[in-house]
Amino acid sequence: MISASECLIFARNTALGLVAWFAIATAVQAQSDPLPSWNDTAPKKAIVTFVERVTKEGSPDFVPAPARIAVFDNDGTLWTEHPMYTQLVFALDRVKTMAKDHPEWKDKQPFKAVLEGDLKALAAAGEKGLVDLIMTTHAGMTDDQFATIVTEWLAKARDPRFKRPYTELVYQPMLELLAYLRANGFKTFIVSGGGIEFMRPWSESVYGVPPDQVVGSSIKTEFFMRDGVPVLLRLPQVNFVDDKAGKPVGINAHIGQRPIAAVGNSDGDLQMLQWTTLGASTPRFGMIIHHTDAEREYAYDRDTDFGRLDEALAIAPINGWTVVDMKSDWKEIFPHK
Amino acid sequence: MISASECLIFARNTALGLVAWFAIATAVQAQSDPLPSWNDTAPKKAIVTFVERVTKEGSPDFVPAPARIAVFDNDGTLWTEHPMYTQLVFALDRVKTMAKDHPEWKDKQPFKAVLEGDLKALAAAGEKGLVDLIMTTHAGMTDDQFATIVTEWLAKARDPRFKRPYTELVYQPMLELLAYLRANGFKTFIVSGGGIEFMRPWSESVYGVPPDQVVGSSIKTEFFMRDGVPVLLRLPQVNFVDDKAGKPVGINAHIGQRPIAAVGNSDGDLQMLQWTTLGASTPRFGMIIHHTDAEREYAYDRDTDFGRLDEALAIAPINGWTVVDMKSDWKEIFPHK
């Protein structure tokens, strides 16, 4: 038998034990490796060191949570951009789908080139040809209709090499980095040269990034009431190009403060990296994903039309930017094996 | 004496009691009135009914948290806009401060009118005069410099009638509504015709709305490197006017999904209310703040240049929008007595 006071002590200890169990469970979770797809090389150490510096209360490097803003390029940084930007694949597919209502396209560039699969003729149509393609395939419908078109296309389209949906060709190490930053009080944003409305229908389910934390290029839209129903119509006019020097402008417009961490993979991310990391009074983190793994993904930098990386790579050491060598720094590339 | 099994049961009950205590403490907190500055009239009931409908899991009206987007106009909805928009007071003050470096303004409109306090001549300068004023006072500096100018001005400026900083002339019932929505999983955004960079320096401390959840009118900015330091320069060119049919466009650009709740106070909010509430498949909430309290604040609707309310008020009943009569529906107006 047990005395009443012994029992009280036991009961108190049980209650305290419950509280302690919660505390231990939380601590264990925090200690397990948050970046298992990263090899234990310099980039992983740089990430963890930076996050620990800015989140340690009382430290001179501490950054309060509302200022923990991290920005990520999308094409080539969060998902594969070779052999062609996925949004361009989408536009070419749309031309083929829409062609039955446009018999005149058989003789009209750049549509003729797309329908005949003549990539040389398409390239010859230059930037004007590209803008024509984008406006034809991305405008003239409501924003809701466009989101549906994108969602339905992504559900069916398959990458020709990996035979998988494009939304599965996202980088596992980057998914872990996004989650690790968010677990440490960061707000994560996508800042992409790609179309803002092309990314939003799937950014939350794939990356955990809600639509209002996606920054990208856009066309103009117009609001009006049609038969008592509010409509936002997509117009065939460029509104904003979120690339190169446009990225800091887009960041300012949407986020309204300078990020403290930026990750990109091309010269299109150079100004975003400069804006994030240079001339600042608090610690900053800049990172470049260098595509070096032709076997598991692709190897390219200077000599490509999609994600050209030259100047940013050259000045990375001067600016203290971490360069990720995909081949040696990433244990896994994709979520699937 | 107590048997070991009795003691085990007691210990278990103590532990369960601890868990129950947390649950009760949370429930009690949830039951205390979240809107104490609202009288128990129709608007308060409409707010609570809507929030309970969309947050009740399993109900056909349930809206998942990521889609719980609420948008608020600022001038006249969250803070006082009479006798003149605060941002215009700021611009006029800036002209006076800058005048010592611009002797030519003594003979040049609209600056002459501002320096002489001649509001009639200022009004005669029309929209072009207003744009000139805004560009002169809001452009030509970096975004950091502008944020500092705004912050320093707000710290010193006092409203002539209430003798208080403008950031204290915010509506207590609206602060409670913002907090109540956030406590129920809503993300709250400001969608204002005012300047986005004029609101961001103080939106988080005053409203609990972070800079990236502020949508507003803007001028263009340009990014470049100056002596190794990244700079965003504010240019004297209009970028976007976030008013009337511009509000749904701004909402789409920044938020990327239709809100389920919108609050405004003028015809400038009409299209935002339409975009939020009409032709939707889930429950929506629209609310108009009607300024009816000349004694505690101001009384105006049709006959004013600042926050004119006519058409939106007329069609509110047809659209099921809740109209707040400030005089009878608000127990308190401001946070101070």
UniProtKB/TrEMBL annotation, chains A, B:
Signal sequence residues: 1-30
Keyword set, alphabetical order: Hydrolase, Magnesium, Metal-binding, Signal
Pfam families, alphabetized: HAD (PF12710)
GO molecular function: hydrolase activity
Protein name as catalogued: HAD family hydrolase
Annotated source species: Mycoplana ramosa (Mycoplana bullata)
